[in-house]
Specification:
heterodimer, A: alpha/beta, Rossmann fold, 7-stranded mixed beta sheet, 7 helices, globular, B: alpha/beta, TIM Barrel, 14 helices, 12 strands, 43% helix
Chain lengths: 206, 391
């Protein structure tokens, strides 16, 4: 069976970042689950901090500089995506949204996506549902039902949520992602030149 | 190989002086620039077409018609003619008129236009950009090639018994290019008709240009117009030169940093590395532009953007002199030396197109009857005249 690619987008801006920590936990759990299903997985991490200038440049010029273009291409070819952002001012970080803004339309259409977010307290948890999930619905991504929010407290042994501690939520969400990734054919995204209609069709349809 | 300049016609404040020309001054500067390019020996001048400030060239054939009378050798062209929002009937008429006035010393480049509101201002929908470009151009060609056209389509009111005048010079339509940055459908359109394809890559990495051009070349061969390497290709470019490279960098940097398109984005160092923008000595321009053929094959036309971002007219004229005196002769010689004998050196001239049409058996006779079936003595008579003619 061909291996599947999981692309992890981490929108954390500090170094080290709890956003990246959550992203890594989710990726490890997804890989473990896929391995158990007999599916080989390749993980690629896109750190938005490193692409911050490229993202702004593309917003202004319309073209992707080489490192951003590589990240966009990885996303277009991903079999599954784990997207994690810090919550700033009740929503995703601006850089995270700017990165999404310059994606080619259709990049994530139909792609299984696991959403994650981090914040100071669990009071920001619903940003995942009122901000990230609608954004990815617009992108026509196949978001998994469980999204994972990690507050600062969650990094303590069991965190404040005794019934559903962070590791349990991570496993459940990762399993949902793994199930979708394993169930679908490996992604073959056509290039710009693969879907050009014949000229006769364009003339006829004009 | 041809070398020319194209103007967007932007009115931009000079960031070093704070001075902004008015529209009249800018139009006159464009006329001066085109005539200077002709005197300097450049091959092509092309004007953009825009319908919103801060751009002045809304009426390309007026400008090019004047220049046809004021210049001697330079080919007059467009960059681009809006095939989406212009009525193809008006394009057929205006550019045939220009062709006759310029005695064939012109061609034109079709583009869709990327300014959203221009579409609704002219009664069109930007989401229909490609279908508009396909249908309008198909009609435009028929209006040039057929004396009497019956036509109906999706985007324009139907035509019955319509003749576009003046008929093209010697019965042969102007040569047409199609320009597109990132729509392979337009490269396919150019290839289908055996027209030229110009990739204006000034804001894009060269790899992207090479992919699009090579797609056009393959499709050109597929549609039976010749080998892929014989397709007619043009590139856009952008340079700023001084004898001393560091002088060029210092002088151009404020214009770069504040330019309308890329200003406040990538640094000039990054942008010159990743796009065709070259800032430096004439030799550095020769080195860079003399190597593009390695990625896109031998091509027929290289255009340069020179009058933009608020550069003063005097500077632009100096740039044209440097280009014409120090860069173009070398690039032209190099291109000619490496060109295979059966690959066209230049885009076809009018005389060559006439010769090809005659060789293909096309005879030029004015088919249109010298009688007017349509015009009444007063506006109120038109309906009666039309009824009589159709009866």
């Amino acid at each position: 069976m061909p291996s599947r690619s999981i692309v992890v987008v981490s929108g954390g801006l500090s170094q080290p970042s709890s956003t990246r920590m959550l992203a890594d936990r989710l990726a490890e759990a997804a890989v473990a689950d896929l391995t158990a299903r007999g599916v080989d997985t390749v993980v690629e991490v896109v750190e938005l901090r490193a692409l911050a200038h490229d993202v702004v440049d593309m917003t202004l010029t319309g073209y992707a500089r080489p490192e951003l273009a590589a990240a966009q291409s990885a996303l277009a070819g991903a079999d599954g995506v784990i997207a994690v952002t810090p919550v700033y001012a009740a929503s995703y970080a601006g850089l995270f949204k700017s990165f999404v803004d310059v994606l080619e339309p259709g990049t994530l259409a139909g792609t299984p996506v696991l959403l994650g977010a981090t914040g100071g307290t669990a009071r920001h948890s619903l940003a995942l549902e009122h901000a990230l999930r609608p954004l990815f619905a617009y992108l026509r991504a196949d978001t998994v039902p469980t999204s994972v929010f990690a507050a600062t407290d969650d990094w303590a042994d069991a965190g404040t949520d005794q019934a559903q501690p962070l590791p349990a939520r991570v496993r459940r969400a990762a399993a949902e992602l793994a199930q979708r990734v394993a169930a679908r054919e490996p992604e073959v995204k056509g290039g710009l030149y693969d879907a050009v209609p014949s000229f006769e069709d364009m003339l006829g349809g004009a | 190989m041809q070398f020319g300049i194209f103007s967007v016609g932007d009115v931009t404040t000079d960031p070093t002086t704070g001075r902004t020309p008015d529209d009249t001054e800018r139009v006159r500067a464009m006329l001066t620039i085109a005539q200077h390019a002709d005197d300097a020996g450049l091959d092509v001048f092309a004007t953009g077409e825009h319908h919103n400030p801060p751009f002045v060239p809304s009426s390309p054939t007026t400008m090019l018609g004047y220049l046809a009378g004021r210049t001697k050798n330079i080919v007059l062209s467009t960059a681009t003619t809006l095939i989406t929002t212009n009525d193809p009937v008006r394009l057929a008429e205006e550019y045939a008129m220009l062709q006759v006035i310029a005695d064939g010393r012109m061609d034109l480049m079709m583009g869709r236009g990327n300014t959203g509101p221009v579409y609704p201002w002219f009664g069109k929908d930007i989401r229909q950009g490609i279908p508009l470009a396909i249908e309008n151009y198909a009609l435009l060609r028929r209006l040039w090639e057929e004396d009497v056209v019956d036509w109906s389509g999706k985007f324009r009111t139907p035509l019955q018994g319509f003749t576009s005048t003046p008929r093209p010079l010697d019965g042969v339509a102007p040569f047409v290019w199609h320009g597109s940055i990132r729509s392979p459908e337009i490269a396919e359109q150019a290839a289908y008709y055996g027209d030229g394809f110009l990739h204006n890559a000034i804001f894009w990495p060269m790899e992207h240009t090479a992919q699009m051009v090579n797609f056009y070349r393959q499709r050109y061969e597929h549609h039976g117009h010749g080998r892929a390497d014989q397709a007619i290709v043009g590139l856009g470019g952008q340079v700023f030169m001084r004898k001393n490279s560091q002088d060029a960098w210092n002088e151009f940097r404020p214009y770069f940093d504040n330019a309308p398109v890329y200003g406040h984005g990538p640094s000039m160092e990054e942008f010159t590395r990743e796009t065709p923008l070259t800032v430096g000595s004439p030799q550095q321009v020769i080195d860079r532009y003399g190597a593009f053929w390695e990625q896109v094959g031998h091509y027929q036309r290289q255009m340069f953007l020179m009058d933009h971002a608020g550069l003063p007219l005097k500077t632009v004229l100096e740039q044209i002199d440097l280009l014409a005196e120090e860069v173009v002769p070398v690039l032209r010689k190099e291109a000619e030396a490496r060109r295979p004998a059966d690959v066209p050196a230049n885009p076809p001239t009018h005389a060559e197109r006439v010769a090809a049409a005659r060789a293909a058996g096309q005879v030029h006779t004015q088919q249109v009857a010298p009688a007017d079936h349509w015009t009444g003595k007063a506006a109120e008579d038109d309906l009666d005249a039309a009824d009589a003619a159709l009866a």
